[in-house]
Amino acid sequence: MDTSHDPTDSTIASDLDALIERGLSRLQAASPALARALQQAQARDRVRTLLQASDFALETLCRQPQYLEQWLTDDGATAVPLPVLQAGQSEQWPGQLRRYRTAESSRLIWRDVHGLDSVDDTLRGSTRLAETCLQTALDALENDFASRHGVVRDGDGQAQRLIVFGLGKLGGGELNFSSDVDLVYAYPHGGQSDGARTLMAEDYFARLGQRLAKLLDEVTVDGFCHRVDLRLRPFGSAGRVALSLAGMDAYFQREGRDWERYAWLKARTVAGDIEAGEQWLQTLRPFVYRRYLDFTALDGLREMKAAITAEVARRELADDIKRGAGGIREIEFLVQALQLIRGGREETLRERRLLPALRALVELNQVAAEEGDALAASYRYLRRVENRLQMLRDAQTHVLPDSPLDRLRLARGLGHADWTGLRAQIDGVRAHVAGEFAALLAPRKPGMAKTDLAQYWRSLPDDGDAQALADAGFESPLQVDAALREFARFSAVDALSDSARARLDRVLPAVLTAAAACAKPDAALKRVLALLQAILRRTSYLALLDEQPSALTRLVDVLARSALLAERLAAYPLLLDEMLDSRVGGPMPDRALMHEECTAALREEDPEQALRALNETRLALSFRVALAALDQRQSALDSTRQLAWLADEVVKAVLQMACDEVSSAHGIVGDGRFAIIGYGSLGGQELGFGSDLDLVFVFDAPVNAQSDGKRPLEAGRWYARLAQKMMALLGAVTSAGRLYDVDVRLRPDGAKGLLVSSLASFREYQRERAWTWEHQALVRARGVAGNDALLGEIEQIRRDALARPRQQQQLAGEVGDMRARMRNELDRSRGEQFDLKQGAGGLVDLEFLLQYLALRDASRQPLWLAPRDTPGLLVVARQQQALPDADIDALVQAHATLVAAGLGCTLDRRPRIVTVEDDIIHARQAIEAAVLRVGLVYQRLIKSPDSTEPPLP
Question: pLDDT band at 808, cuts 50/70/90?
Fold first, then answer.
């Protein structure tokens, strides 16, 4: 800005000194006591600092000098007394409120300019002052209305109150010094007042709200209390002044717009019926925060920013530190946009206050820590400058001053000798903010529209040459061409809005380019097209892929390598959020996190919603494990162990849900206990993707016990009902799929036995009637959920069964015979194709080997009783020298190799049958050699004609 005609610095400084001296003279004339106090040099200097910063404070203290006298003593630590608005004296209320507001505001200035309050303190103080004035004024008006019109009551006869929502900085608790307050009025229910002059609820609360706005906003001889802006209400200035909460619901369901998501992100009930308002705001959260990553929020932000930029240019507001480039609004928009994008998934981002929201973004790795600190510092700095601009004359301004005298006052108040130094600092802060904001809204990379693949796509479905696909590297360009033409004719593509179609036209060429770079481009594209068909009606996902090119590349890569993840993403697009979650590349979820997230799902009051939430949690956590396995960020064994932990926590959550449901219908069984045992891969903590759960249910209750509800059940039936409910919940189909398939055939007596065994019958069965293979199964059995004491007793039964002395030759024969029968029935190996699980030298051979060793030696070596998993059993085998160390080393490697190969097959939706290669050969050889070394022979025994064979497990 041209400063060639500005007065000299010395002249401006002299003018400032004269202005301050005039102010001191006026204060001395206002109060003899103040005049005496100002004779002291220290007091005089402190007041000079105040007068340099604020004409508004001078005018206020000339009218109310007693407060300055007090502040010189206590430094403004004591708040100004709240006025009492007496009934029947409404003509005095405006003056009382205005004098209170100006005095309390001047106290905030005193504390700010003397460094007694931080900028955060000043913003909180301004907010608290506005809330106090609102509530005080509303209380007085409500009493006045009640005396004339009565009160509006609901159907139960309860009095209703006006609900006052504060939006913007008031809602966020960050009100600047001379801001207006954005208010929206609502009321709980319809009806009419019960006084002599009745009013319908709509009129009653509208008039009350108008009176409230007038009492605060109207300019009188004492000025104003707070400027009130009601334009953010539903339908804006054309809408009703107050709406019922039902009317608010209807508006946001049908009419809510993107900019209103930003406005209501900070909404808070600031006066009136606080409880009703806050409860309703909870129901509005799905409008503000979408359940998925929502990059459409950037579209709304771009539109708002474009409008603001146009206004700044039109009104020449380049020096506006709020709306101009790099101003406060850009920091707010940046943080709020990231909140809206991810707040549906991350509860910590649902924060009304800007700085805590920024901290949450840093903690979630959405903003770098250094950048977060810089943005927070920039925000505080600009807010302090904004406050000082407004403190000067209590004006709602955000524009840097033109007046040389005002510039000097602002500069010195902020610690600079002159305007040049302050302006340079402000410009530096704004340049940094503008750069960060521009990066957020950076347009998609240009040039994509010029590629051959882009031109080919835009020619479909009627034109286009498949040669572009052949040139790009697709293996069967004619088949790919046919698939793309079919996709282009898809009804959901025709139904896209113009903006969504523009996104698709940017996304598809990028998809083609990324797919062409894959090892199997045709398969990759087929999987991506299936996903795109599933998400076309959810434009937020198109926006995500459009706004995040790296996300699109990552997506194509994952789908190209995993048919399982491709299927899950197409079926449950919500998992796209999980794939792009910043935590995916970090530490994997442990048991504690899994427990916390599964437990959180149960907070849903509706059982169906709780089951859906639990399914989504399972999907998300298992998807993270799958991605880590696919990217080889952890071993296959770690992945299978985490999947077992997840199943444990899901079973515990489902047990709680089932208990709640059965108890509500039939009461509870006093002193009854219930436990769930996991067998097989769940018990051994080697669960695969899509594996079912082998479960056994056991209960214990006093003789003749029954439940205590209105429809009592005998204990056995109660626990059978509980187990049936659990199985139904685990297998129920929700919008997020089903939790798990359950297999209960390993229970005592198999399919002929009861679904739930009593503790006594379970003990008797394991001691007297269990087959050898059932004791083998006990090696991997593990308590998963239920009563801890009962689980302890079941564990003792397990230990007693496993530690029973056995005749080695007979044991070897029974184990070998059972394994031979299983191979004969289940082995799918053919030629060079090897069945990783059931084939000779496969995983089951290794499991049988270790189970045999455990049953053979547990009576003499109790260490065999502790581990359930294969690695743990191999550790004991080494400790007990059941096999040479070299054999153990080979078995550890063989197990890891076969599990990794099997997990790889599962991730790509292939049967666990692989082509025999060197690593598989070595694994098989190690297992077969160890089996022979301990004397096991996996072949059928010759049975006598009348002998009974055990069933296959």
Answer: very high
